[in-house]
Design goal:
By secondary structure, the chain is of the alpha+beta class. About 40% of the residues lie in helices and about 25% in strands. A five-stranded mixed sheet has the order 1-2-5-3-4, sandwiched between helices.
């Protein structure tokens, strides 16, 4: 089954109906490994591996998200005190919090995601996850009013606080 089909099928089973699909590529750093979120210089290139998510607002203040790859579910609110336990969910929570801190809007949403970016292989699976959700939340809740450079800084800030 193709990645996209697996995600949309799982979303329909878990949450009913359908969401909107978003994808973000992994990357390889030709120079500057782990310096991007520490303020250093990098020379990245996108690769043909992605993180893909099906996302839909749920008219609540709760985020409900399921990771197909690790078969894990997390649910959390959007206040600082609501940080989830699971490390993978903290990246999504961090994106939500960074958007809110910068004056953007985020409300509750349902999401299912998976990818073929190898975890822990230095191909920026966490950055792809952050970017995928930043684009989705910008689209759903902010009318795409946050520019791409700011979305990149949101991901960078998320990596800094999540890695700490």
């Amino acid at each position: 089954m193709e990645l996209k089909d697996k995600i949309t099928s799982t979303f329909a089973t878990r949450f009913g109906g359908e969401g909107t699909l978003y994808a973000s590529a992994g990357r390889i750093n030709l120079i500057g490994e782990h310096t991007d979120y520490n303020g250093g210089f990098v020379f990245p290139g996108a690769i043909d591996k992605v993180i893909m998510a099906d996302v839909r607002p749920n008219d609540s203040d709760k985020v409900r998200v399921y990771s197909i790859d690790i078969d894990d579910y997390a649910e959390f609110g959007l206040n600082e005190a609501d940080a989830p336990e699971a490390s993978w969910a903290r990246y999504i929570f961090g994106v939500c919090r960074e958007i809110i801190k910068r004056g953007g809007k985020v409300s509750g949403f349902d999401a299912v995601f998976a990818g073929n970016v190898p975890l822990g292989a230095g191909l920026s699976s966490s950055a792809a996850l952050e970017s995928c959700f930043a684009f989705a939340l910008n689209d759903h809740f902010n009318g795409n009013s946050i520019d791409k450079f700011e979305l990149a800084k949101i991901g960078q800030s998320t990596s800094t606080t999540t890695a700490a």
